[in-house]
Amino acid sequence: MADMDPITLMRTRVVMHKDRVAYPSSMDFPQNFPGEDLAWDLEKFKENFKIVIGFIGKDDMEFDLIGIDASIANAFRRILIGEVPTMAIERVYVINNTTIMHDEILSHRLGLIPIKADPRAFDYKEGEEDQPTDLNTIVFNLAIQCSVNKNAPPNSVDPKVKFINSSGSLKWQPQGDQEERLGTEIRPVHDDVLLTKMRPGQEIELEVHCQKGIGKEHAKWSPVATASYRLLPDIQILKPITGQDAIKFQRCFPQGVVEVVKNRKGEQEAKIANPRKDTVSREVLRHKEFEDKVRLTRVRDHFIFSIESTGILPPHILFKEAVGILRLKCARLKQALDDKLMG
Amino acid sequence: MAMVEPTTDTTGVPHTEGEKIEILASDYEDPSVATFSIRDEDHTLGNSLRYMIMKNPAVAFCGYALPHPSEYKINLRIQTDGMFILVSGFLNTRATSSDDYVSGSMTAVEALHKGLDDLMALCDHVTETFDAKLAEREFEIREGAEVDAQ
């Protein structure tokens, strides 16, 4: 088993030891290695950079970003969580609320409801002086009364049978030409979010205004449930692991990571089958018999990226938006720098 | 973001008053070094920009800091390899191209410009690659996925 040469190991892998992590930071900078040109070169980057999409679902996706630095991958992740805008309820005008839920708590709960509206079709509302218009505000109404169901069987205990709520959820009130302009109905992503429980005789009547915003201001505007990445694990077997040890070795990893095969001598030997499934629990490093036989590493520039959308925008759109926002940040700063120096 | 005081006058985006970018005054003598104070930015742009600028062989040092958690800004320090002497003007006169200097390969401002350009080119390529992969359809499409949504 050919061992990876130490320089390549240092440059391309994050090595996991029992009690520490070695080579965590990137070192591909000019002058770090003699005789090598590590200056930024777009063509070189294009050659090395790869995206492999694993799957796209209704609200989630997984893909690999290969050949990119952690600082950039992390910028995409941070932008996804905090800087891709969405529409969320910002103002609640309570006309009547006789439930036991306080107006403030009810408003907070309303704010966190994901609203299925394309944020790209709306403007930010620029402060108090900026009047609400059909371009920056979405309006919903909520009017519910709870009453006793007179037709319920006398011995019924289920509140869904005993009581009746007069209406369902938030009703969209299109403003201006919103209906024609958007072409689709605006509604909450889920129609069964529990806001509060009501008793007969209680009622809620309110109007809410949605505004555009970003997750950095308040988490209700975050377009993702989570966006995260992990580095691809790479388990290196340095000396053959055979016999009973092979079985024990296999048990140190999640199912499917290690397979035990018959080698040429007819012994059982452990082979790495699918390192991607490994959680890098480092269990294997607790056992003396594997001490100098295995090395746990992660590939430093291979990111397994996962996006879970709240359902407002499809996950692949969110990623494209995030990349666009990083570009926009650069363009804005460049413009500001030009203005500063010329002015 | 916890650091900006909440007001009723929200725009949905945290922002602070002042110029987007300032060059701290201590560095006016030597254009090969500069500390840029950039408002309304954090690790997202700071770290990725630091990486791109450090990839520039003319840059001797680049680092950034968030000076305080309740100030929404970063300080970005760039030192290039050249000692510059202005051909025309003194001190506060800032040159915009390397032709204005007698020696040296790049000013700190130029290094920042190059870093921004490189980062934008990188973003363009990531978008292009991602779009191409989407179009190839060589991945699992699960129930309800809106792969064609734009």
Describe this structure in words.
The complex is a heterodimer of chains A (343) and B (150). In chain A, 24% of the residues lie in helices and 30% in strands. Chain A has 343 residues and is an alpha+beta fold. Chain A has 3 domains: 1-84 and 223-236 and 292-343, Gyrase A, domain 2 (2-Layer Sandwich), CATH 3.30.1360.10; 86-222, RNA Polymerase Alpha Subunit, Chain A, domain 2 (Beta Complex); 240-275 and 285-290, no CATH class. In chain A, strands 1, 2, 3, 4, 12 and 15 form a 6-stranded antiparallel β-sheet that branches. In chain A, strands 5, 7, 8, 9 and 11 form a 5-stranded antiparallel β-sheet that branches. Chain A is flat and about 80 Å long. The model of chain A has no long low-confidence stretch (mean pLDDT 94). Chain B is 27% helix and 18% strand. Mean pLDDT of chain B is 83; it is low at 88-93. Chain B is of the alpha+beta class and 150 residues long. Chain B has a single domain (21-87, 99-136), classed as RNA polymerase, RBP11-like subunit (Gyrase A, domain 2). The chains are: A alpha+beta (343), B alpha+beta (150). The interface between A and B is large, with 69 and 63 residues. Strand 3 of chain A pairs parallel with strand 5 of chain B, so a sheet runs across the interface.
